[in-house]
Amino acid sequence: MSQSRSRSRPVSASLIPGPWDATKQAVFEEKVLRLTVSANLPFAWVENPEWAEFCAEFIPQARPIGRKTFTRRLLPRALKKLRADVQSNLTGKNATIQGDGWTGINHHHLNAFMATVERTLHTVKVFEDSAERKTAENYLAQLVAVFKMLGEEWKVVVVAVTTDASGESRKARLLFAKAYPWVVVLDCYAHQVRSLPVMEHYF
Fold this sequence. Notes:
Blueprint: H1 2-6, H2 22-38, H3 49-58, H4 67-90, E1 94-103, E2 109-117, E3 120-128, H5 136-152, E4 157-162, H6 167-179, E5 184-186, H7 197-202
Parallel strand pairs: 1-4, 4-5
Antiparallel strand pairs: 1-2, 2-3
């Protein structure tokens, strides 16, 4: 038992006792953010009196983190780093765009566009267009924006596109196919299945 424990992953250098500096504070904030996201906790939990007391008792050097710190600084910074890491790993690879729209219980309409690369799904862009008319032209503009973003910023090669079954989506697909005839445009039933053998083979 003791032997197996000795083979556990090494302790991070940031956790080795020493003076609390800006580097340790940054690591502390990142770890708390990752804990919050992985446990699906509300951001407000870091302002809980019990947590504040815990920090004061065991890590008094750490500066407190508030919910605004999450939303204004930590989360945007983490997302920026995550997106940069993802984009660097996808450069030059083939991608399939998947579009899906829905209306939430708050009556906000969202159009989400994702890219599947080597059987892994990545969120690319979510449009909130509740105030916009649900037309094929508007949907096409969003689709083209995502298509260009993937090519110019993510540096991937879009080889196929599929969307949901709404009327404007269907028309937008036809318009997209005319504008980009070298891209495979699939009917709506394809996006209902996570893994299509033909797409796995070619894309």
